[in-house]
């Protein structure tokens, strides 16, 4: 005959297995399915209960035959996008990229001026957006959407500098939650190269064209994140 302690052990064993399962369900990564282009975007949730989606592509990589050309929308299915890493910044002029450059490091700490920030994670394939929303936001929430286009004289800047999570957290505390979207766009010679040949080719102000296509992406897909596209 089984002892009393043995019976208790067997009766509580399912609960022991259930605890990790509950924890896993509670910490599942936020996932959003978009339609233009078709993709499943997998993000993360920070300690302030803000869902973060980084580096979502809104255009084909502006490289090779698309370098110095107007941005092209993505027409094919992307599949799963793991949007949890810091998005790559577009190539740009920087005051310094040397981490041992003490004067610029101090200025970067005391200010939020892009020219003094250490942007070393850069690449030409940079046409992406970051999205921030209150954790648990449903697709039918229709929250107001704030789209941030960073400044910098068309020379410097990146979504990595302007995270937006604190802004969303503050909006929640005020009882007026919003969704925050920021975009990377081509800068300097890659986005605003001057000259008659560039103008004739229809490739002037490419950075502004990038911004326009990013705004179109927001209009097409932000409802899936719980934002109001209107």
TrEMBL record:
Pfam families: COesterase. One of its GO terms (biological process) is antibiotic biosynthetic process. The keyword Zinc-finger does not apply. The keyword Hydrolase applies. Residues 46-230 form the Carboxylesterase type B domain. SUPFAM superfamilies: alpha/beta-Hydrolases. Residues 1-18 form the signal peptide. It comes from the Eukaryota. Keywords: Hydrolase, Signal. One of its GO terms (molecular function) is carboxylic ester hydrolase activity. Belongs to the type-B carboxylesterase/lipase family. This is Carboxylesterase type B domain-containing protein. It comes from Penicillium solitum. The lineage of its organism: Eukaryota, Fungi, Dikarya, Ascomycota, Pezizomycotina.
